[in-house]
Amino acid sequence: xxxxEVASAHEASxxxxxxxxxxxxxxxxxxxxxxxWFELARTHLCAATGTTYPEIEALxxxxxxxxxxxxxxxxxxxxxVARVTSRVVELTSRSLIFGYEIRVGExxxxxxxxxxxxxxxxxxxxxxxxxxxxxxxxxxxxxxAKPPLR
Amino acid sequence: xxxxEVASAHEASxxxxxxxxxxxxxxxxxxxxxxxWFELARTHLCAATGTTYPEIEALxxxxxxxxxxxxxxxxxxxxxVARVTSRVVELTSRSLIFGYEIRVGExxxxxxxxxxxxxxxxxxxxxxxxxxxxxxxxxxxxxxAKPPLR
Amino acid sequence: xxxxEVASAHEASxxxxxxxxxxxxxxxxxxxxxxxWFELARTHLCAATGTTYPEIEALxxxxxxxxxxxxxxxxxxxxxVARVTSRVVELTSRSLIFGYEIRVGExxxxxxxxxxxxxxxxxxxxxxxxxxxxxxxxxxxxxxAKPPLR
Amino acid sequence: xxxxEVASAHEASxxxxxxxxxxxxxxxxxxxxxxxWFELARTHLCAATGTTYPEIEALxxxxxxxxxxxxxxxxxxxxxVARVTSRVVELTSRSLIFGYEIRVGExxxxxxxxxxxxxxxxxxxxxxxxxxxxxxxxxxxxxxAKPPLR
Lengths: 150, 150, 150, 150
Description:
Four copies of one chain form a homotetramer. The first copy, chain A, contains four helices and five strands. By secondary structure, chain A is an alpha+beta fold. In chain A, strands 1-3-4-5-2 form a five-stranded antiparallel sheet. In chain A, a hairpin with a 2-residue loop joins β4 (95-104) and β5 (107-120). The longest helix of chain A has 16 residues, at 32-47. Chain A starts with a helix and ends in a 9-residue tail after the last helix. The model of chain A is unreliable at 1-8 (pLDDT under 50). The C-D interface holds C 25-26, 31-33, 35-36, 57, 62, 64-72, 75, 124 and D 25-26, 31-33, 35-36, 57, 62, 64-72, 75, 124.
């Protein structure tokens, strides 16, 4: 039922070398940094739409974060490299949900999601996804795009 | 049905002066900092048990964070003071859920929750809440304490 | 030689409750946070000019940081409250140097300085201190103001 | 006068993709992050001694930071990749000074240095460089090693 086009949905992954500054006195990466790493993977995924996030801002829009959830499953430590993967979980005409995974080798360290709405930079008001960005985001969303976006 | 003791459940609030370093290029506080502010309010709430969090660590335990959720409702800006409030939402013999609110004046800026498990510092294994900490946490939890803790 | 006016130079101090998130796996506050604390004290000192830093930005200027030095003398730990003090060390028509001290009780933990230049927000070009800000900054600078500012 | 061995002093460079979370409301990377990037480059340089920094800690030592200086020359922005280079500037039996450069392409964005002393993890007391680490650090220091280390 899934068209070949739809099946080509993208994931983006980025390898993050843990920084000493990211540890806390428990001796592990402090939990706020996972959210920064999600953002880094999301930057890569946005670039896969054909428009980088700096370009989106230059067009006059923000993909403003409205919610975040993280489940921590295993510690990440200094000296390790974490692979952070992001994909679109839901795309509507006004909002976007990304899903994430953080792994060190085979070890699953965290999963999470972030919710976003499009806002116009000039007045910070919510808007529909700008027409120019729609094809690229629909493409990376694949099955996750709700009609009429898919 | 609620005993007077149970009704004495605590909340802890802390006023946070927004730091320039906490803003991002959207001109608002970056979303990771809300989680750090939650932690600050939680530190105050733990102190209300009669045992500060540094004392808990000195006893050989961590209240390890296993999950976080935040809903962002309005931006917080440099030059503002945010009031961060924390309370216990659920207390079992092995886990703890805290709820939070961030307000600037009357404006509700964010709500959230964090989930925690007790772990023994020596081997990072999950354990029951240490006996010595039980009365204090039961007291601040009030109705949120599940039997047999309440 | 010093006029009474000049002698009224201000210092600004702010008490910072150490955040768990500010520790690293050495078990002490990571050194980058001292610089954020300096900024917080500087915000208070700017307010003492009669114009808050958000107001300075609204006027169309930045006090852009061009250099920083910190000497770390003793560790600061979670559970402690650090007092951060800032004062003007040198004020010229185009630049400003602030000095800082961080203490926990009597213990001197760090000293430092930051150098700044005035820039116009519109084009990020260096400019002279805006006339409207001159009296306030001269006043907090006291002896540290170089002629013709003093 | 310089032996061929000495001439083989190392530099370590690391490419850092700017994170959105590293920007502030001036629209540029906030100055505290340069210090975190220095640390990342220093981690790579330590690895070039043959002993990684996590291994140094496991041996029971810290290379504790006692001072930092940064000169900011040009802004770094989200969407850019910064190359951070680190080398040893001075090595004595008890202390170590590293120098750094941050560039985006040809543009020099910042230079800096950090000073460190060896401390024993058990009691945080200053010590001489552990014998086992001496050859590796002397090698990466090259001419920067003071006798008798060179």
